[in-house]
Amino acid sequence: MSDLPFFSAKAQPRVKRYPPLMKFTSRLLGALLPAAALIWLVGFFGSSHSAWVLAATLLAVALGYQLWQLYRLNAWLLDPHPESVPDGVGNWGEIFSALYRQEKRRRKDQRRLTATLSRFTLAAEALPDGVVVLNDNDRIEWCNRVAEHHLGLSRKRDLGLTISYLIRQPHFVEYVNNERYTESISLHPVHAPDTLLSIQIFPFEATLKLLVTRDVTQLEKVSVVHRDFVANVSHELRTPLTVVGGFLETLLDLEQPNRDIEHRYMRMMQEQTRRMQRLVDDLLTLSRLESHSGEHREEDVNLSLLLQMLAQEAEGLSGGRHVVVLENQGPAWLRGNRDELHSALGNLVSNAVRYTPEGGRITLRWQKQEDGVCFSVCDTGIGIAPEHLDRLTERFYRVDRSRSRDTGGTGLGLAIVKHALLRHQAQLDIRSISGEGSTFSATFPPERIVNR
Hints:
Layout: H1 20-45, H2 49-78, H3 90-126, E1 130-134, E2 140-143, H4 145-151, H5 155-158, H6 163-166, H7 170-178, E3 185-187, E4 197-204, E5 208-215, H8 217-253, H9 259-291, E6 299-302, H10 303-318, E7 323-329, E8 333-336, H11 338-354, E9 361-369, E10 372-379, H12 386-389, H13 401-406, H14 413-422, E11 427-433, E12 437-444, E13 449-450
Helix pairs in contact: 1-2, 8-9, 9-14, 10-11, 11-14
């Protein structure tokens, strides 16, 4: 694009400029003088042999000059450059001057077009989508780097090849051949099967086509998460609603009131109602954390006092079934949002109590480290298999659904923990051995420590 030669001002030939009257006189004399010379020679010498020889000689000289100028013009046309336009006088000077100006304008227009095309090429390269230009035979004329990455193409190797020869997946070949370009198709590239592409062809001009590719892998993942989220919420709410509805029908069908039965059913309905309330509360909390809505006020939080409160909550939830130990060896104050910290750290503590068998040990540890300050909860519970660790913070993900429901979990606790810690620039680390216990650690950056 940018390697076209630019002509230099030093190499441009001098062009002789003449007034219009002089141009007309020069052209008139150039046409009349040879004829006048022949007439004078023949009239002066009569019709003698010498007159004709002299006239023929003059004609030959004039013809040779014209042939020489034609040769120079033809040589220049074979390799036209403004700096090499021949110089001449008279009519030939005007012709060469006009050629020089025309070639100069052409080169200027060519540079302008080259610069414009270069800008369009750079713009196409900067697009986040892949772009492939196809001719009327669906052969590749050009593609950007994103298209090379998406489709596994090579501009050096694949230019001029048919696109369906390079991408042989049946539904893509059918899409290209049937010319249903008003809709797009989805495609998993052979060289990157985990990637999902949206592909659509847009015809333009008379015969050219623009094939556009877009990586929609993340959008598809978000869509799957959204569908799973709706399905999980529906499932989690359906069970308690079914229980409450069933109890209400049973109570309505009782012919004779029975105080004991009514009391038992009411207690069960109250339990299911609280379960739905916890689910709704967790959903609202998670939504607020994920959308960063509401005020995120930060203050100096007394961690020593918060840790004592967490230990008391653990003992209350345990009911004496576990040994709860608090090891406070870290700074007393931390910068953050107290409610969010209480919610995040409290979820870690309550999970440890719920999933640790009776007689187990739960240790709450607060200590300073090289990379900041860390709150960890260690238990001697049932542990978690390695294949589940990476997915624990997903919404509604449960290692054992039946055990989670028995312990009263909503499946949103660790998701809330993750997002609350992210708002405090903290990292959640999970280490566990199945059957031996787990350690959940929240590490805060040193900038969060408050020295008092």
